[in-house]
Amino acid sequence: MRNMADSDSCDKLERLCLSAAEQIRSECDAILKQNNDSDSKNPQATGIADCGEPLTQLLGRQASQFIFLLQSRDSPEPETVSLLLRRLDDILSESYSHFYAYLFKELPVCWRQLYTDAVILKFAALYLFSYAGPAASDGSQDTTLDEMIKTLDLALILAGAAGEQRGRRWINRALDLLEASCNPTELPREDTPPSKRPRLSPPTQEMQTAPIQQDSPVFSTHEPFTPPVTHPIRRTTPLSLSDFQSYMDSSLHGPSPLIITSLASTWPCLTTHPWSRPSYLLSRTFSGRRLVPIELGRSYVDTAWSQRLLPFRSFLQTYITSPSPSPQTAYLAQHQLFTQLPALRNDILIPDYCYTAPPPHPTDPSADQPELDTPQLNAWFGPAGTITPLHTDPYHNLLVQVVGRKYVRLYSPHDTPRLKPRGREGGVEMGNTSTFDVGIVEGWDEPPASRDETSPAADIELFRDVPYVDCILEAGDTLYIPIGWWHYVKGLSVSFSVSFWWN
Amino acid sequence: MELYAAGFNAWGQLQFGKDEQTNEEPDDIPTFTRVLRDDNGIDGIHPFPSYTIVHTKTSGVLTAGLIPKADLPLTTLPHPSYSHFARASNGLSVFNDTHLPLSPLFPQPPWTPLSSLFPANTNIPSTVTQLISYTTGFAALSTFPDGSTQVYTWGDERYAACLGRDIPASSDTNGAADSQGETEVEVVATTPGIVTDLSDLPTGPITKLAAGGYVLAALTAGKDLYIWGHGGRAAAAGLRGLGVSGETMPIVIEDYDIEDVAVGEGHVVVLTTSGEVFVIGSNSNGQLGLGQEVKGVESWTRVSIKSEGDIVGVAAGPKCSFLLVRDTVDKK
Question: Helix (H) and strand (E) counts for chain B?
Fold first, then answer.
């Protein structure tokens, strides 16, 4: 049974579940009623209407069933709960199959909302009919708790938690209340403002003086391999906004890469909320229960490469902090982690440079994208040896190194033809990725056995002649990658970076 | 005749003659159970995601489950018409306008006339005897007056293995073909192209196509079964054991000849000429008829039913299966 201290969060969560079910029921009823009343399809039909009458009815029925079971005096029969959960899983599987049937950018949003609403009802049913609180002595409740968190994370990661009435807001609220109900004694989540004092000491010492978790271990700084830097990128202390704008506008051929030191060194992630400590990251991921998408394999162009969703704790223990080498490299790469975990978002700042007006693509106007409303943030977290193959992005990029060191090599967009971009492969556009593998050309990596094509030796010699610049990013460094610049990135130690795309 | 069914039943699509409105949430049917009987015979079983249409000799058209309002006119079509329209799960729908009228039944969009997918100077659409869909595309069986057949496929290039044929490599699309000996012109994924591997088989022309999920199947006049599809998506749906690829693969089940085949989203049902039923794939909703405990099977598994009659046909919805049984009354 739940104890007294956390009953407030439990009551709030129960009310949140009930009101979501009531909303879903009334939305489904409205869609079905409209469907029966008028012959012409209402162009304003929203939500899950486009998933069709049968699925709308099925979801609405499960919402009704949930409300009925919650409001009846007796606790529900296990068979009744089981059928409710199975029907919700049926809806999840049906909506998820559409995620593959369509190109993601063409997927009608109704399928993402149907998935999200089924997740909300499934979470509600698990919480109210299967879960008896975090304190069960036999550990069985841990399994249900994991299942509830996984259910919500799937909606965040796979379906983008679509839906205006509930969606991401509902899921974040449910996760906060659930975590509060599990840790009634935890300190309030309000974050202390980041330290503004300038960096006086090397980052490692600074982290040791951080106010929390002073004695918990930090990630290993071991580097199995360190490539030589042969054409170093210019390094500078932070520029003013107008100086940065002038730097970007200074050349007709477009700006060059630039390292800005100490731009991020006062951010909470490098000071008071140290991402270099596994214990801190676990505390921000529901004790490591939150699910994260992981890429497995050497590089995304290899055939053996795959993606998996893992609890953060398993990812850390199996692939990052394990003393024995893991069979595969695992990389939390290009994931909008800060949308999924807003608590970590508070540990970083958006650099002011992201509010400048950068120049267009220097050679290919078709690469320019519609203007982003806000910079697009991605997290890149992995062990030593992660690789992002030579590729180019359609945005200007600030790559901020938070933990560990990464090697980056960049080629100018003016040399694009010499980098032999790939074409369409299996219906997927791969033109932003080079056919050349920097690590293999340089002899830093063994070519994978499964590799289906290798470049002829003559081509590789021509590739070696293409000019480039390179660097090793240290914690606190920020690399400006102008739009269109090809980049190859290799994690040298355990490494955590954040990229900011803007235009 | 009797109709047995097993599997997903969220809309009561396996229960004929039941009132639509009940407060009970209908549960799945985990073992093959008799759901219908017609002393004079059953002509056709047409499973849709949320409903089933059955054409019977005595009672005419019977339906079970929830028919979306937009689909109601389809229930007026005669039995043979169901071979001439198909809906994929990616928003694309095709109907064979050479067999079905350009009527309000098939508004465009979302329906595409089959003839618009072929060059104007060909009569191939009128030779198409069966048009079916899988999740991201279509297949058509074309039967010519001399008895020979061709199978055409088209669909999403990302799942090209479902096409069972070669498509032009991406680099070829812009330039001319560089190999001089090439006489076969490869057709792009989204345009109907011939599955040449099925054109000249040792056991004769194709008599039936079936598809579901990311798996397609073809039966020959000589009772052989060929299956192909996208291995990764098929495995994800529960059909790992089938080991499908873009190569059409003959299916061997002991020494049996194959009489009929049905393909669901993640399962396949096969009827042998001796009346045995074999199933493979996902049993998530009881669609294999193997009960509630079995989640699925990765090898061909025999199922039996409690009937003295002979099983003469099989059909499948996305997550359900049907067996058509000629019972002892029919035999007399």
Answer: 3, 22
Alpha-carbon gap: A260 to the closest alpha carbon of chain B (Å): 41
Residue of B nearest to A93 (CA): B237
DSSP state of B195: -
Residue of B nearest to A421 (CA): B171
**Phi/psi at A332 (5° precision):** -85, 95
Q: Which of B227, B203, B207 is nearest to B215 (CA)?
A: B227
Tokens of residue A470, six digits = 């390179």
Q: What are the backbone angles phi and psi of residue B250, rounded to the nearest 5°?
A: -70, 135
Nearest residue in chain A measured CA to CA from B318: A94
Cβ separation B25–A427 shorter than 8 A: no
- Separation of alpha carbons B66 and B56, rounded Å: 19
> How far is the C-alpha of A335 from the C-alpha of A329, rounded, in Å?
17
* Interchain contact A191–B (C-beta under 8 A): no
Q: Give all domains of chain A, ordered by start, each with its CATH number.
A: 4-182 (no CATH), 246-357+375-447+456-502 (2.60.120.650)
Interatomic CA distance for residues B244 and B236, integer angstroms? 12
CB count in 10 Å sphere of residue A457: 7
- Mention every residue, 6+ apart, whose C-beta is less than 8 A from residue B132: B86, B138, B139, B140, B209, B210, B211
Q: How many CB pairs under 8 A join A and B?
A: 63
DSSP assigned state of A291:
E
B49: which chain A residues are within 8 Å (Cβ-Cβ)? 54
- Residue of A102, A103, A424 lying closest to B170 (CB–CB): A424
**DSSP letter at A384?**
T
Q: How far is A194 from chain B (nearest CA, A)?
A: 46
Q: What's the token pair of residue B108?
A: 């465009």
Could you count the other beta carbons within 10 Å of the beta carbon of residue A291?
25
Distances in Å between the Cα of B183 and the Cα atoms of A82, B163, B168, B177, B179 are 59, 20, 13, 10, 9
Q: Which two tokens stand for residue B312?
A: 């003469």
B170 and A425: CB-CB below 8 Å?
yes
CA B123/CA B144 separation, integer angstroms = 11
Cβ-nearest to A101 among B11, B66, B136: B136
Which of B71, B72, B158, B174 best probes binding to A when mutated, by most A CB atoms within 10 angstroms? B158
Q: Which residues of B touch A427 (CB under 8 A)?
A: 156-160, 189
User: Cβ of B272: how many Cβ atoms within 10 Å?
Assistant: 20
Q: Are B163 and B195 in contact (CB under 8 A)?
A: yes
Q: Measure B331 CA to nearest chain A CA, in Å.
A: 39
Q: How far apart are CA B190 and CA B86, in angstroms?
A: 16
| Residues 396-425, chain A, touching B (beta carbon < 8 A) | 423-425
Q: How far apart, in whole angstroms, are the C-alpha atoms of residue A382 and residue A401?
A: 12
pLDDT in tens, A458-498: 788 899 999 999 999 999 999 999 999 999 999 999 999 99
Distance (Å, rounded) from C-alpha A212 to C-alpha A222?
24
Q: Which residues of A touch B189 (CB under 8 A)?
A: 427
User: What value of ipTM does the predicted structure carry?
Assistant: 0.94
| CA atoms within 13 A of residue B110's CA, in its CB half-sphere | 12
Name the minimum distance, in Å, from the CA of B217 to any CA of chain A: 19
Residue A203: per-residue pLDDT? 41
Alpha carbon of B202: minimum distance to chain A alpha carbons (Å): 31
Average pLDDT rounded to a whole number, residues A348-368:
92
**What is the distance in angstroms between the Cα of B50 and the nearest Cα belonging to chain A?**
6
3-state class (DSSP) for residue A69:
helix
Q: Which residue of A has its CA nearest to B236?
A: A97
Mean pLDDT by 10 residues, chain B (332 residues): 96 83 84 94 94 93 92 88 94 93 82 94 94 97 95 95 89 42 74 95 95 98 97 93 94 95 98 96 97 95 91 97 84 50
